[in-house]
Amino acid sequence: MYNKRSRLLLLMALFVFFSGKTWAQDAIFSQFYASSLYLNPAFAGTSESSRLIMNYRNHPFPDTQGFSTMYGSFDRYVPYLSGGLGLLATTDNHGGFLSRTEVAGIYSYHLQLSGDVFVNLGLQAGYMRQDIRWNRLEFTNPNQQPPDNTMKHSANFAFGAMIFSDRVYGGVAMHHISQPEISLVSDEAIPVKYTAHLGFLFEPPQRRRANSILYEYLVSPNVIYQKQAENHRINLGLYGGIEPLMAGVWYRHNIEDPNALIFLLGFSASNFRIGYSYDHSLSGYSDMFHAAHEVSISFYFLTSQQQRRQNLLRCPLY
Q1: Average pLDDT over residues 221-250
Q2: 11 in a structural domain
């Protein structure tokens, strides 16, 4: 006999192994533009300064450690390369017994098409590794020995393109172009993930003034579509705020059925941003303690000699 937690972990492990396509799907972030390099490598170098971003996402489940994902990235614009350089790392942990880690480097070439229209082309190359901790599982047969294979790794590549002006931004991306094989029990590959995103930024001509302080406010509708194997997701979102506060709401739909409502709050200062989002599942399994929570922190390394570039991307930062 083995306890309830072990039974659930074993069932989850069997589900992962015998439905590899489920495990092959990428982790999902709800603060799309806080994890912008994860969304599209063409975002590298689009900020006015070097920036460091960290995201933590947690989705607890009863009797397990739940699902958690950590993301970190650093990018900056490099003038003599006519583009941006970036470095990102992600770790996706499932139940404390399965994990996937990726580290990647990015170069994004920035091209000016006309006075206020720019195109970015991003290339990403990385290393991906998948691990399993057999000692976290208890088998029905106590004499059964765990398999020898505990890790598999592979190279991984992505491409992205983006076009934007002062008010409109949109792009496409392809991840896992090489379809890396990192399954521990088969030769199944991670399917290519396709992403398309489009957003608008509206600022009223009159800005609000209070107590001799000028406040800028904006409204930004967005749509993001993603496809990976049989999974199709469309995300419809709206941001709005008055500096330094911003709020947002997203609706995530999995084509076949509604998936989640996402609520977001953000605060910005001169050199840092912090955001919090809460995913409320529409599938019937969700409450404050069994829903996805995500926190992002961004640091911007501004200098006194910083000069404003023409090719800055203006979009929400969460």
Answers
A1: 92
A2: yes
